[in-house]
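Project standup — Tuesday

K.O.: blocked on the structure for the chain from last sprint. Re-posting the sequence here as requested.
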Amino acid sequence: YYENNGEGMAHYIQHINTWGRDNGVMLGEHFAPHDIEVRELTSGKSRRDTAREMGINFRVVKQHKVLDGIEAARRLFSSIWIDERRCQYALECLSQYRFEYDDKKGVFKNQPVHDWSSHCADAFRQIAMGWSDRLKAPQQDSMTVVPQGAMTW
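H.V.: unblocked you, prediction finished:
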């Protein structure tokens, strides 16, 4: 797991490629949220276009309801293996991702708390939705999941 901020696309793509090379992993598909297709005002190019020029072709995850993504993430857990040593921070984030309790109404709110654990949880939610969408599409021989931008697993 890798999380960072304040770096450009080139940094994260270099990290993804270096990690794959150093770990003997041939990367397959890369998932990104729908907003990767937003066009930059200065260049007119989308971040997806920029990534493609750098050798990464993202599969775009359709916009979805947060609760649908959380449910997809719950289903995905039984089908994956997470390296406990390398992903210790990610596992801590995922375990701390939670809904806020409304004391007045005596129920949990409809949206999760946005805090330090959110970026990791949101990336995992994108993976889960991308995986879920992918299972509906024709299968390929192999796949390694790498979410957009600052997150790699």
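K.O.: great, moving the ticket to review. Strands lie at 30-33, 58-61, 99-102, 107-112, 146-147. The two ends are 4 Å apart (CA to CA).
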